[in-house]
Amino acid sequence: MPLYEAKDYFQLFVSGASSGCIYVLIALGLIAIYNVTGVVNLAQGEFVMLGAMFAVLFRGFHLPLGTSLLAAVLSVMLVGAFVQRVTIHPARHAPPVTLIIITIGTAITIRGLALLFWGTTPYSLPEFSPGPPVQVAGAVLSRQRLWIMGTAMLVLLLLYLFFEFTLLGRAVRACALNRVSAELMGVDSSLMALLAYVLSAGMSAVAGVVMAPLTLVSYDMGLVLGLKGFVVAIMGEMENAPAAVVGGILLGVLESFASAMISSGFKDAIAFFVLFVVLLLRTVRFRDLLGRRT
Amino acid sequence: MLRIEGVSVCYGRIQAVREVSLSLQEGELVALLGPNGAGKTTLLKAIAGLLKPSSGEIWWRDWQLSLLPAHQVARLGISLVPEGRQLFSSMTVQDNLLLGDYVHHVGRFKNLLGPKQWLIRRPEDQQRLAEVYSLFPRLQERREQRAGSLSGGEQQMLAIARALMSSPQVLLLDEPSTGLAPMLVREILGLLEHLRERGLTIFLVEQDAHAALRIADRGYVMETGRIVDEGSRKELLASPRMRRAYLGGL
Ligand SMILES: Nc1ncnc2c1ncn2[C@@H]1O[C@H](COP(=O)(O)OP(=O)(O)O)[C@@H](O)[C@H]1O
Ligand SMILES: [Mg+2]
Q1: How far is the CA of A287 from the centre of ligand 2 (A)?
Q2: Based on the number of CB atoms within 10 Å of its own CB, is B216 exposed (0-12), middle (13-18) or buried (19 or more)?
Q3: Is the pLDDT of residue B75 over 70?
């Protein structure tokens, strides 16, 4: 086993934290949908894949990079709106287990369509600002990792401002807290459910777009990402956003240390080990997850 | 005028409201009395659009409410203060009131997406807030507190204040006096009288017939889903059935 210096630990920590930012974005989307509609959306990872794929697609039309990225995120939000109206909305009075199964079906459908359309070839996206890695306090970071962390922070800030300080954000929260009361206030809860879904799809698309330059983009990348987002959402007990932020970063850091110090083959297993421990310790009991309806 | 014509409401196979007909003139304060399980809450929920009648019609002016979802009914100016208050308890008092104000901002993106601090400085919204705070000074003192941390009486006041923020034409109240000390009950009844004098139409559901008939113009009595008695306050106070069942030999 090689010896590590303090700056190497810092390096592992920072690059892990940036991966963690991706999980956070996915998890917050899951939490938003769950709280407003009572649905555990197991198709969340597919929106990450679509974000990355659409960015590659629009880039192929020779659009400037910034325009491609924006168009990718907006397209995924449109897809999200369509998916919510066609799959979740008509079944909104069905039992939670039915709804979960519907979201699994949605995930398989989106992945299948992506396979038909893009095939199994992996694609790549250029870095947002190509150039040599930057030194931050002794750690060497690719510029894209700074983009990931910066974007995630910006999205978190915007979400916070939206939910805490705008009337529309309060109305979405109100639906999550007490749907019947929100309706009595004149809030259209089915529109708020759509809004939550579209916002969540957008957040996942942002995650897909910013991480794309660091990995190869392929039709099946959504599955593992969606599951990791789910693990992180559970760490936030499906409702606590700050806990999910900490949990997501923690998971990224754990993965980064495990793949450096044990073996990179361990990386994806960490999430499931964490899920196991978290479920054992307490947090959400699965029965609640399947039984809760707002 | 609010007209309920032959309305029945079912939960699955249980028929909780059976062919009820009644009406409220504008500006009236009408009480709906009856024991636990009579179907009073169910009827109010049907008016508010939370439950759909299995037969019959509910009309408010020219709108058939029974065809509309609850949020549309609320936007027409019919506001329900539900049983058990149903506050957004983890939000502040002021945020609860702002959600009551939501109907005035539907479809106005600048108001919906701007900072809520700007909203409460707009003259119309500021005036509505000032008005409910003048009716409930204690809420103003506690405006930054979580709604869940208020006392039972204060929570009931907040529930009524939140409904008033939407500037309703009709106020439906489901047992507002439940669990409150007699002094608070008197305070709330006084407030309802005051609101009626200002032209609000009020439909008050109560189990406590004494309390409700102290302020109501008219009343209906409901038992096992049906209206079994109705009349002016005087008629009900004199009705043998009422004296026997609800007024304890007044
Ligand atoms: N959600 C429900 N599901 C099934 N039955 C219900 C439900 N709510 C009320 N009921 C039944 O409907 C009847 C009327 O209830 P309710 O309207 O709450 O009466 P009240 O408000 O006069 O006490 C009761 O027999 C009650 O058991
Ligand atoms: Mg009741």
Answers
A1: 30
A2: buried
A3: yes
CA neighbor of A192 nearest in space, from A162, A222, A215 = A162
* pLDDT reported for residue A243: 93
Residues counted in chain B:
250
| Distance separating alpha carbons of residues B57 and B187, to the nearest angstrom | 35
Q: Could you tell me the residue ranges of all domains in chain B? A: 1-77+168-250, 88-166
The CATH number given to whatever domain includes residue A93 is: 1.10.3470
Query: Contact, B116 vs B97, CB < 8 A?
Result: no
pTM of the complete model:
0.92
Residue A1 domain-assigned? no
Question: What average pLDDT does the segment B5-29 reach?
Answer: 97
Reduced to 3 states (helix: H, G, I; strand: E, B; else coil), residue A46 is helix
- Residue B162 contacts A where some CB pair is shorter than 8 Å: yes
CA distance B118 to B133: 18
Q: Residue A239 belongs to what domain range?
A: 6-293
A233: CA distance to ligand 2 center in Å?
A: 38
Tokens 């800030």 correspond to A157
Does A10 have pLDDT greater than 70?
yes
A121: phi then psi, degrees, rounded to nearest 5: -65, 130
Ligand 1 test: best mutation among B9, B10, B11, most atoms within 8 Å of CB? Answer: B11
The answer to whether residue A58 sits within a structural domain is yes
Q: Indicate which residue's Cα is closest to atom 11 of ligand 1.
A: B16
CA distances in angstroms from A10 to A2, A54, A113, A270, listed in the order given: 16, 34, 41, 20
pLDDT band at residue A225 using 50, 70 and 90 as cut-offs? very high
CA distances from A199 to A31, A157, B109 (A): 11, 14, 16
Task: Check if B41 has its Cβ closer than 6 Å to any atom of ligand 1.
Answer: yes
Tokens of B177: 């006096």
Instruction: State yes or no: pLDDT of A292 exceeds 70.
Output: no
Average pLDDT, chain A: 92
Q: Decide if B102 and A186 are in contact by the 8 Å CB cutoff.
A: yes
- In this predicted model, what pLDDT tens digit does every residue of B86-115 receive, in sequence order? 999 999 999 999 999 999 999 999 999 999
A186·B75 Cβ contact <8 A: yes
- What's the pLDDT at B30? 98
Q: CA–CA separation, B151 vs B89, rounded Å?
A: 12
Tell which one of B17, B20, B41, B175 to mutate to probe ligand 1, the residue whose CB is within 8 A of the most ligand atoms.
B41
First CA to last CA across chain B, in angstroms? 33
pLDDT tens, residue by residue, A67-120: 999 999 999 999 999 999 999 999 999 999 999 999 999 999 999 999 999 999
The CATH number of the domain covering residues in B1-77+168-250: 3.40.50.300
Q: How confident is the model at residue B242 (pLDDT cuts 50, 70, 90)?
A: confident
